[in-house]
């Protein structure tokens, strides 16, 4: 696109220079100045278009940042599960009296008549 624009700009500057020279109203130095400015305008316009594209790209990045700041989903805070209340009593007492234990019916007792209280 810029190549076509530069060719058109230089061609039009040359055409108007030849046209004005044929009318006798300009000198060859002015025609040379017009051609030089036509070349510089091409580079200036190319630079301007590049800066506009960069600025648009940067503004798109800023818009994305604002979207992330305003609409970013946040996960819930961690909540530790509360223990369920069990049906067990809160207070209790074990009262064991005269307990005896053996491993098999044909073996002798290992524990003989033990009693204790657990509060």
Question: Can you walk me through this structure?
Answer:
This protein is α+β, with helices and mostly antiparallel strands. The protein has a domain at 2-71. 55% of the residues lie in helices and 13% in strands. The protein has two helices and two strands; from the N terminus they run H-H-E-E. The chain has helices at 2-23, 28-71; strands spanning 94-101, 111-118. The protein has a two-stranded antiparallel sheet with strand order 1-2. The longest helix is centred in the middle third of the chain and has 44 residues, at 28-71. It is rod-shaped and about 140 Å long. The two termini are 95 Å apart. The mean pLDDT is 80.
Summarize the structure.
By secondary structure, the protein is of the alpha+beta class. The chain is built from two helices and two strands, in the order ααββ.
> What is the alpha-carbon Rg in Å?
49 Å
Biggest pleated sheet: 2 strands, antiparallel
Class from secondary-structure proportions: alpha+beta
Strand content: 5-15%
Oligomeric state, counting identical vs distinct chains: single chain
Strand order of the largest sheet: 1-2
How many strand units?
A: 2
Outline, from the CA principal axes?
rod-shaped
Integer average pLDDT: 80
Runs with pLDDT <50, length 5+? none
Helix content: 55-70%
**How do the helices and strands follow one another from N- to C-terminus?**
HHEE
End-to-end distance: 95 Å
How many distinct helices? 2
